[in-house]
Amino acid sequence: MVEISTIYLLDSASGDAVEAELRDAIEEAQLIDWQTRWQPALIDILRDLAKRGVPMSDWPQNWHWDWRRKTAGVQGLLAFKGFSVIAGGETQGLAQVNLTGTGREPSHAGKPLVYVDYLEVAPWNRPDLGFAPRLRGVGSTLLTAAVALSEDEGFKGRIGLHSLPQADDFYRKCGMTEIGPDPAYQDLIYFEMTAERARAFLEEE
Description:
Blueprint: E1 4-11, E2 17-23, H1 28-51, H2 67-74, E3 80-87, E4 90-102, E5 112-121, E6 135-136, H3 138-152, E7 159-163, H4 168-173, E8 177-182, E9 188-193, H5 195-204
Parallel strand pairs: 5-7
Antiparallel strand pairs: 1-2, 1-6, 2-3, 3-4, 4-5, 7-9, 8-9
C-alpha cells in the first residue's frame, strides 16, 4: 500500500502555496512522466546548450540517468525505497534510497543511516539549468522524506549521500556535513546529516 502525504510547494511565479502529494513509492505513472515529460524537456535543454557551444562539463550532470532502469534494478528488494512528488498532475521529483548505509562522520561512525542513491527534480524545477523553477521545495521535500524514513527505521534521522558537483551547494544549504571527496566514488563529495541536524531540519521543513 502506497502511503500518500499532502505537502505544499511554492509557485515561483505567484508566490502561492501549491498543494502536492508525497508518495513513498515510484510507480509506473511516475516513470511514464519521466519518459514522456522530463526526457523531452531535458533533450530541449541539451540541444540549446549544444547550440550555444556550452561545454559538456557544464551540462546537467545527471542527464544520462535512467529512472526505469534504476527502479527495475531494486524491484522487490526490501532495503530499497522510492519517493515521488506529484503536483498539478505531473511528477515533480523522484528519489531512491537504501537502508544499508553506515555513518562516517565521527559522532556517529559505523551507525546505520539511510543512504540517498538518487534524487532528481523535474527539469522545469531546476534553477541550475538557467531559468526560474516553476515549483520550489521539491528537492528539500524528498530529502525530508529520507530523514523521516531514517527516523522511522530507528536511525535517528541520519542520512548520507554522494553529491554531483552541481548539487553540492544545495546539500550545504540543507545543513549536511561535508565529509569530503570520495576516491572510491568518482571523487564526488560525500555528505552526511547527523541526528542533531536531522531534528533541526525536520523542524525547519
